[in-house]
Amino acid sequence: MAEVVIVDSPATGGALVARHIATQVRHSSDFTLGVATGSTPLPVYAALARERSDGLDLSGVSAFALDEYVGLPRDHPESYHSVIHREVTEPLGLDPSLVRVPDGDEATIATAGERYETELDAHGGVGLQLLGIGTDGHVGFNEPGSSLASLTRIKTLTARTRADNARFFDTPEQVPTHCITQGIGTILRAQHLVLLAFGAGKADVIARAVEGPVTATIPGSCIQLHPHATVVVDEAAATRFERADYYRWVYEHKPAWQGL
Ligand code: GLP
C-alpha cells in the first residue's frame, strides 16, 4: 500500500518532501530527481530553494522531466523545457546540462520516445519521481486508458486536460493537441514515487487512485503497483478517503528511522 501523508497545507507538504530530497542529496550528491510540471509540485521546489539558501548544494543533481508538448518551440514560455528551466533548474541551481526534458520537436517526434528511454536507462534511472495528478487521473500526460506497461511515447491530450491547461495560454485553441510523456511503465521504474495532490478539486481523483482498483482508467492508480510510493495530500484533498483515520494513525506512529 502507498503511504498516505495528510498535511495541513501544500506548504507543509512541500517542506516535508523537500526535506526528504535534501537528505537524499546530502547522502549522494549525484542524486537523480524526476521532476513534474503543473502547480502541484511548486511548494516542493520552493522549499528546496530554501534548503539551497540554507547551504544545500544541488549542482550535482540530475533531473528528468516527465513530459513535453509536441510542436511548441522550446523557447515558448509554456513549453515544459521553459517551465522546468524557470521553475526548477534556475531556482534550485541545477546544472542545465544535467536536466533532461523529452524532445517535443515535430520533425523528430517518431524517435523521441525511444531516445528518451535510452537516455534514462544509460543514466541509471530516477531515484525519486515527483508526480502530480490531473483531474482526469493522468500522471505525466498518461491519459485515461494508457497502458500500465507503456514507455515514453506520443499521446493525444484529452479535451479535459486541454481545458485544464488552457489557463497557461492566451486562448484554449493554443493548447497543443499532442504531447510526449514518460509511460506508466517508465514511471514505475523510479525507485521512489511521491504523488502530490492539493485542494478540493483533487479529492475525488486521488481517492480513486489510492483506494480504487488499479486501472488504466485512472492512470494514477499505477502507484499501487509500486513497492515504495508516498502520497502527500492536504486536508482539502483528503476528504474522500475511506481510510483517512488509518493513514493518520500510521503516520503518527511511524518509526522515525523510516523517513518518507
Ligand atoms: C499537467 C502535467 C502533469 C500534472 C497535471 C496536474 O497536465 N502534465 O504532470 O501533474 O497536469 O497539474 P496541476 O498540478 O497544475 O493540477
In a nutshell, what does this entry contain?
This protein is α/β, with parallel strands linked by helices and 260 residues long. It contains 8 helices and 10 strands. The strands form 2 sheets. The protein has a 7-stranded parallel beta sheet with strand order 1-10-9-6-2-3-5, sandwiched between helices.
How would you characterize the overall build of this protein?
This protein is an alpha/beta fold and 260 residues long. The chain has one domain (3-254): Rossmann fold. The chain has 8 helices and 10 strands. The protein has helices spanning 10-27, 42-53, 80-92, 109-123, 159-165, 184-187, 203-211, 244-252, and strands at residues 3-7, 32-35, 62-65, 67-69, 99-100, 128-131, 153-156, 178-181, 192-197, 229-234. A 7-stranded parallel β-sheet has the order 1-10-9-6-2-3-5, with helices on both faces. Strand 2, helix 2 (42-53) and strand 3 form a beta-alpha-beta unit. The relative contact order is 0.18. 2-amino-2-deoxy-6-O-phosphono-alpha-D-glucopyranose binds at residues 36-40, 66-67, 132-134, 140-141, 161, 165. The site of 2-amino-2-deoxy-6-O-phosphono-alpha-D-glucopyranose has 14 residues, from helix 5.
* Outline type: globular
Biggest pleated sheet: 7 strands, parallel
Which percent range describes the beta-strand content? 15-25%
Structural category is alpha/beta
